[in-house]
Amino acid sequence: MKNFFFCNKCQVILTPKEEGGNVYLECKNCGDKREFVDWVEHVCSKCGFNKSTIVFHEMTGGDEGTTTMYRCIRCGTKEREGHLA
Ligand SMILES: [Zn+2]
Ligand SMILES: [Zn+2]
Known about the structure:
- With 85 residues, the protein is an all-beta fold.
- Helix content is 0%, strand content 40%.
- The chain is globular, with a radius of gyration of 14 Å.
């Protein structure tokens, strides 16, 4: 999985935007905007943005299996569930 969301047309990183309780991903280049529905409340320890998406991270060679992680939709930082900053 990619670290960021890209515009299909210009391959520019989409900027998350909050509007009336909904989250949109906007392309600063062509103005394309799409609603992003798959978000959860989680404050990013890096940029402070409070919307993340859930990703499942496969642990390589360990016994832990799959770990649930939050990925900030603004900066792409991944954090483990229950991570304390
Ligand atoms: Zn675009
Ligand atoms: Zn962030």
